[in-house]
């Protein structure tokens, strides 16, 4: 009897990769995809790495595939943008060993800057897409993706969403497949994508998709569930679960392959139901194609393009039912805020004192845009802060950016910030870049990166020296400052932004939540010395609160003794004590 286990969707994908005989996995951490690699690392049969960014991860997987083994790349939806350059081209080349990209979308914007739909990227890149609906399918579809990849000579995308990635389901475990490495044969016409070769491969891609679309109607992962034919629903992925809950008696065509679509199967299903609905989160990818075939269907005219769906939303949209729900519990508002002892808070407090604007980036430090810090003015994408500052200078001149800095984390700097800094040096910028080095990839749960000195497996490795790297690029003015030395940091920022040449400040202190960063002290308030000035409250540390009498209290269970509040008190009303 086979073993069964409750697994997260991401954990199930990792298991699927293991059972499929994958030998190489590469990724960059990004919610909601991070746990895929964190679970793959438990399978020693698979080489797994954190790559500096998603483009590199995709290229590592491509190299492994060309050499003849099955390879996986995993990333969140905006990471697919970064990886799109190699992705679009390998679609022409095809594969040797199976090649699968897991793209984790984020409907509802739980931890992302947009809600893009990766299915549209796959359609443009001309690669097929599988979309599982639960943890068991997440495992099985991952395995199937490798089989289809090799059968049709194509990279495959497995598209997930936050709800699937982070929900649990029962998964039946199987043995690992013993997949022989495919022999590598030199084939420049297939793998060297210069124009003459690419033209011929484009013809192959069109033929491949046409063949797959024809075969899709008989694939087991696309199945019709006939019940009451008054209502028919075409759906896929997590929305399938909502449809089954909201419309238990409706007929449903559940699609596992969402690109290319099985035209014959869809036409047959549509002919057997009275009213046809297409239910899909985000963009109307399936709906538009189905309607283009002359099939009458209802979709985004009653369903939203935004956010996650739910059973209640479908009941209201299709059946007109208003569902009574209990009023939510009345709890105090809890706006997003940096953790107690976060070194970014110290840095932002200094910048706010100096009236400095921040061109921001993607990371924990993006919270520097909200009250009470209000330092970051822009955030676009990974690595954009440096290029944004450069663009401001070239548009408005040197004096305009004397009260601006670019703010970027250590992991994000290694992800896509290096090229931007090179661009500043090459094109004679004079701005100041602040690398907020907290020794981890903090925003996704403390993953290692190229400057931490450890691999995904936790093994020691060469740690990139950020200071030396900046010097090597050509930055003459590089200063490393303890993020909690606020006076030195203040003088450093004032000095560097006033210069007429490029400079880098590395504001350095470990993330407060790192297991290696164990606090040996706490800060305590002394009410009798407190002058009720509120200066200690300005940085917005959640560990410190104002009492009814105007004095402050520090929660010892939250405080990690960073001393930022103490450094702001001029009256000795806050002290450190050993714990």
Poorly predicted runs of 5 or more residues: none
Share of β-strand residues: 15-25%
Q: Major sheet: order of its strands?
A: 3-2-4-5-7-6-12
Helical content (DSSP H or I, runs of 4+): 25-40%
Strand count: 23
* Chain oligomer state: single chain
Give the termini separation.
52 Å
What kind of sheet is the major sheet?
Answer: 7 strands, mixed
Report Rg: 27 Å
Structural class by helix and strand composition: alpha/beta
**Residue-averaged pLDDT:** 94
Helix tally equals 19
Cα shape? globular
Explain what this protein looks like in three dimensions.
By secondary structure, the chain is α/β, with parallel strands linked by helices. It is built from 19 helices and 23 strands. The strands form six sheets. Strands 3-2-4-5-7-6-12 form a seven-stranded mixed beta sheet, sandwiched between helices. It has a six-stranded parallel beta sheet with strand order 15-14-16-17-19-18, with helices on both faces.
Which characteristics define this entry?
single chain; 579 residues; alpha/beta; 7-stranded mixed β-sheet; 23 strands; 19% strand; globular
How is this structure best summarized?
This protein is of the alpha/beta class and 579 residues long. It has a seven-stranded mixed sheet, with helices on both faces. The chain has a six-stranded parallel sheet with strand order 15-14-16-17-19-18, sandwiched between helices.
Task: Set down the secondary structure blueprint.
Elements: E1 4-8, H1 9-19, E2 24-27, H2 34-40, E3 47-50, H3 54-67, E4 71-76, H4 77-93, E5 99-105, H5 118-125, E6 129-130, H6 135-152, E7 156-161, H7 162-165, E8 168-172, H8 188-191, H9 195-216, E9 223-225, E10 228-236, H10 239-246, E11 250-255, E12 257-259, H11 263-272, E13 275-279, H12 285-292, H13 311-319, H14 343-354, E14 357-359, E15 376-378, H15 384-396, E16 404-409, H16 410-426, E17 432-437, H17 466-473, E18 477-482, H18 486-497, E19 503-508, E20 521-525, E21 544-546, E22 552-554, H19 564-568, E23 574-578
Parallel strand pairs: 2-3, 2-4, 4-5, 5-7, 6-7, 10-11, 10-13, 14-15, 14-16, 16-17, 17-19, 18-19
Antiparallel strand pairs: 1-8, 6-12, 9-11, 20-23, 21-22
Helix pairs in contact: 1-2, 1-6, 3-4, 4-5, 10-13, 14-18, 15-16
């Amino acid at each position: 009897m086979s073993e069964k286990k409750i697994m997260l969707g991401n954990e199930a994908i990792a298991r699927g990769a293991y059972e499929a005989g994958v030998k190489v996995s590469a990724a960059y951490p990004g919610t909601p995809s991070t746990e895929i690699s964190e679970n793959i690392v438990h399978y020693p049969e698979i080489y797994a790495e954190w790559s500096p960014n998603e483009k590199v991860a995709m290229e590592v997987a491509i190299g492994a595939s060309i050499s003849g083994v099955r390879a996986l790349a995993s990333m969140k939806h905006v990471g697919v943008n970064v990886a799109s350059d190699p992705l679009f081209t390998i679609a022409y080349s095809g594969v040797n060993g199976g090649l699968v990209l897991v793209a984790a979308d984020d409907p509802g914007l739980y931890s992302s800057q947009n809600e893009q739909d990766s299915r549209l990227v796959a359609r443009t890149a001309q690669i097929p897409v599988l979309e599982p609906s639960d943890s068991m399918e997440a495992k099985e579809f991952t395995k199937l993706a490798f089989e289809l990849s090799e059968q049709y000579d194509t990279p495959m995308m497995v598209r997930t969403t936050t709800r699937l990635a982070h929900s649990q389901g029962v998964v039946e475990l199987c043995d690992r497949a013993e997949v022989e490495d495919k022999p590598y044969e030199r084939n420049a016409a297939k793998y060297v994508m210069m124009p003459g070769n690419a033209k011929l491969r484009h013809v192959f891609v069109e033929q491949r998709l046409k063949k797959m679309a024809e075969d899709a109607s008989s694939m087991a992962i696309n199945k019709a569930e006939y019940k009451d034919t008054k209502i028919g629903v075409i759906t896929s992925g997590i929305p399938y679960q909502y449809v089954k809950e909201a419309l238990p008696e409706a007929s449903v065509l559940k699609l596992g392959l969402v690109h290319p679509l099985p035209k014959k199967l869809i036409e047959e299903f549509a002919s057997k139901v009275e009213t046809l609905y297409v239910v899909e989160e985000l963009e109307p990818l399936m709906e538009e194609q189905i309607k283009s075939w002359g099939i009458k269907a209802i979709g985004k005219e009653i369903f939203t393009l935004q956010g996650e769906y739910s059973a209640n939303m479908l009941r209201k949209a299709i059946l007109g039912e208003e569902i009574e729900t209990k009023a939510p519990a009345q709890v105090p508002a809890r706006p997003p805020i940096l953790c107690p002892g976060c070194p970014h808070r110290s840095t932002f407090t200094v910048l706010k004192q100096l009236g400095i604007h921040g061109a921001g980036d993607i990371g924990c430090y993006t919270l520097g845009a909200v009250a009470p810090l209000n330092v970051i003015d822009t955030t676009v994408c990974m690595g954009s802060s440096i290029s944004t500052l450069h663009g401001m200078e070239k548009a408005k001149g040197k004096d305009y950016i004397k009260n601006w800095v670019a703010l970027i984390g250590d992991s994000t700097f290694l992800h896509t910030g290096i090229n931007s800094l090179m661009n500043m040096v090459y094109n004679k910028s004079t701005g100041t870049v602040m690398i907020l080095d907290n020794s981890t990839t903090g925003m996704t749960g403390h993953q290692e990166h190229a400057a931490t000195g450890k691999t995904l497996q936790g093994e020691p490795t060469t740690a990139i020296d950020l200071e030396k790297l900046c010097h090597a690029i050509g930055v003459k003015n590089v200063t490393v400052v303890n993020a909690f030395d606020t006076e030195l940091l203040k003088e450093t920022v004032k000095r560097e932004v006033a210069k007429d040449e490029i400079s880098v400040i590395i504001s350095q202190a470990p993330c407060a939540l790192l297991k290696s960063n164990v606090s040996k002290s706490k800060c305590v308030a002394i009410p009798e010395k407190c002058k009720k000035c509120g200066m200690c409250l300005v940085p917005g540390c959640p560990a410190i609160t104002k009492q009814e009498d105007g004095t402050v209290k520090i929660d010892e269970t939250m405080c990690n003794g960073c001393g930022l509040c103490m450094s702001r008190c001029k009256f000795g009303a806050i002290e450190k004590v050993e714990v």
